[in-house]
Amino acid sequence: MNGLDWAVLIAYFGVMVAIGVWSHKRVDTVGDYFTAGGRMPWWLSGISHHMSGYSAVLFTGYAGISYTYGVTSYFTWAFPIAIGVALGAKLFAPRLNRMRSRLQVASPLEYLKERYNLPTQQALAWSGVLLKIVDVGAKWAAIATLLSVFTGVTITQGIVITGAITAVYCTVGGLWADALTELGQFVIQLVAGLAMLIAALAKLGGVSSLWNVWDEPALHHHNHPTAGPYTAIFLVAYLFIKTFEYNGGMWNQAQRYMATGSARQAQRSATLSAALWFVWPAVLFFPMWISPLLVHAKKPDASDSYALLTERLLPHGLLGLVVVGFFSHTMAMCSSDANAIAAVVTRDIAPAVSRTARAWSTSVGLIAARVTTLLFLGLSMTVATQVNSPTFKDIITIVIKWVAGLVGPIAIPFLLGLIPRFRKSGPTAALVSWAMGLLAFYLLNYPVNDAISGGVNLEYQISVPVAISLFLFIVIGWIKPEDTPERDALLAKVNNDDPGAGSVALPEPAAAGDTVLGSSAVGD
To answer: According to the UniProt record, where is the region Disordered (predicted)?
Structure first.
């Protein structure tokens, strides 16, 4: 990087701070901080939902998969997400929006206390928070890895730099700041991604390379949808997992749907996100797929291949823009996760363990939300420094195996609990399916994996926990139905399209006079 690249990077950081300051003026309540007060336009919500699924892991871990296996990276990552979000546009997005507007909640998990019970809510909340600390830690490590390639700073220095800048804008502006930075990220990614595609095609001889390049010996088998450990079983498992995760199972995507003004707008938001997932990742991935023709990766997992490719193909200025794109991906995703975690901690966990938290006023609750955001960022940055330790092994292991394997048991009771078909699945089904899914993940990845020669295949490590959780959640609901009139009434609120259904507030975890969403808490 030269002076021009650094100027682009510093200008980007300045814009992030400005967005935070502007967004601060729109945040008066906890509801504004966590769900934008239900005033976010559907198109901004859709772009934000799409971009919150990216991080620098795409340009490190998935760049390594692309370098080694080719188009497998798209078909076992972006393609399942696109299908899952498209399904969720009808199945989950409207229900999540009604959950905010009709139950007057500011956290995705607030409704679980009434849908199941307090122990279920706390089990899902605590396990989800701990998983996200590790997940976001991996993302900090990914961006720091890229930063070290371009600038020479150490991994720890890179983690501190990116984390500190993220903390400034996301704690000040809440979800508005997250969404607006993700809009900026989309514009940056559009320019940088097209620049990389054009530069790669020019290097290989033009547009005809899109279909001619696959005959090159270095790209042997690079055009196979599944390859290596990323098998057809892995693809199907990932489809189930990502359907739950990207429709709100890890909470930050749920906030995007909750932030729109109506259930219909939430559905349009999800449809836009799904369309982007089908198309845009293929544009980003193509230079990665053909990277063996242009660079030689130095790391065993080829996680440095995209950074090396960028240095070779792009002039200064555009190189700085791509580095800005790396930052914006990770900073937007991590700030998005931090906001969701702060919502769960301050709205669900703190009131359950502290009588003082139950009496927080609006202003005190907002301060607690910002402090919790900072604490989460600090913990995840600490984990990031250990990402290559024997416990975690490497970035892509955490993102693919830990998150994919654990998100199902956490997300299934949360999302399926919104659907009337599963109304008989109550607290017993939720807790048992959650616990057995986590236990299955532990057994497969540690005792059983160590006992089997060659270990357990990756597709089973991630698919069995979600399969067990799904099976138990459904079957226990049949064997031991726990539907009650109160639970049926709650489900009617989030499933009823009748504009006259109105709103009903759940018991407030904060002070009785604290109106969470103000006048926005009305029926669709």
So the answer is: 501-524
